[in-house]
Amino acid sequence: MNTSRKTTKKSWKTKGLMSFGMVLTMIILMFYLNEELKAPVDKVIAEVSSKQITQKQENEIIKQEPIKEDKPASKPLGKVVYLTFDDGPSQLTGQFLDILKENEVKATFFMQGGQLQNKNFQDNVKRATTEGHYVGAHSMTHDSKRLYTDGQFVHEMEETLALINDITGTKPKLVRAPYGSVPGLDNEHLRKQIVEANIKLWDWTIDSLDWKLKNNPYQIVENIKNGTSRDVEVVLMHEVRQTLQVLPEIISFYKERGYAFGVYKELGHFPINFRNDQRL
User: Fold this and answer.
1) Cα–Cα dist 55/59, whole Å
2) Could you confirm whether 86 is annotated as catalytic?
3) Opening angle at CA 135, ends 229 and 128, nearest 5
4) Of 133, 138, 132, which is closest to residue 161 (Cα–Cα)?
5) Residue 138: in which H helix or E strand, if any?
6) Catalytic site residue 238?
7) Which residue in the list 133, 203, 210, 238 is annotated as catalytic?
8) What is the pTM (predicted TM-score) of this model?
9) In this structure, are residues 176 and 110 in contact, taking their beta carbons and an 8 Å threshold?
């Protein structure tokens, strides 16, 4: 009786040890399995973290790169003349374009908003840009008091540029100040507004005085000939009949003198203003 009880006791003890061993074995196996499964996950997390750090570093490098500021381009090399015409569009615009086309010459036009609003003139404004000419702004009103004294210069130029965009689909930035930037833009505040509006401005190097030579058109040619002395010239003319009459002769003069005919290019902008303001 006592022997049977001892045997039973040993049996239960043995079974208990075996069960404990199996449980311990399972725990050990689960631990190693878990570690094996965990390793690839940790690897993936490490790779993602590494990429995030790399991307962050790249972003920091990009942020640290200095912003390149546009600097005024230098004047074109060689002898170049820019023929420019103010106060259009007009009834004569088409005839100016005909002469320029016949002579294979491109020009730069500075047009007024009040004239641009005339639907009868708009086809020739489109034609000018289609044929490779540049159309810039010359204000809405050409009113000195409103533009300079009342400080409406930028507002009027932006309104005119918007009209040109509506008509031609182009987005010009170049303007010409009525009566020139001196004395009109003596005010530094006005010039600062022009810079902030990202508008560029051109005056001229030769004034043909054509507007007051209605009865003496050939004096226009003489004025231009006498004024030509630089390799790069910007000639101020207007859409008036006396200029139309002598335009072929003006073109011939520059061809004989070995000048190429330039048209304004925004990417190649260089300052031509009486203020010698390199920002404009």
Assistant:
1) 6
2) yes
3) 100
4) 138
5) none
6) yes
7) 238
8) 0.75
9) yes
Closest CA to 142 of 113, 175, 121: 113
Query: Helix (H, G, I), strand (E, B), or coil: what is residue 253?
Result: helix
Q: What is the predicted pLDDT for the residue at 18?
A: 53
Q: What separation in angstroms does the CA of 28 have from each of 15, 39, 265?
A: 20, 17, 79
Look up residue 176 and give its DSSP letter: -
What distance separates the 2 farthest-apart alpha carbons in the chain? 151
The conformation of residue 239, written as its DSSP 8-state character, comes to S
Q: Region of 82 please: left (phi>0), alpha (psi -120 to 50) or beta.
A: beta
User: How many angstroms separate the CA atoms of 164 and 121, rounded?
Assistant: 12
Structure tokens at 177: 């100040």
Which region holds residue 88: left if phi is over 0, alpha if psi is between -120 and 50, else beta?
Answer: beta
Q: Give me the amino acid identity at 228.
A: T
Tell me, what amino acid is at 34?
Answer: N
Determine the Cα–Cα distance for residues 164 and 174; give it in Å rounded to an integer.
11
- Answer for the pair 245, 256: CB distance below 8 angstroms, yes or no: no
List 42, 70, 86, 98, catalytic entry: 86
Contact 278, 73 (CB under 8 A): no
Query: Amino acid identity, residue 123?
Result: D
Burial class for 183, CB neighbours closer than 10 Å (0-12, 13-18, 19+): exposed
Identify the CA nearest to 262 among candidates 107, 141, 62, 50.
Answer: 107
Q: Which residues of the chain have pLDDT under 70?
A: 1-73
Q: Angle formed by the axes of helices 241-256 and 217-227, to 10°?
A: 40
Residue 168 is predicted with a pLDDT of 98
DSSP state of 69: P
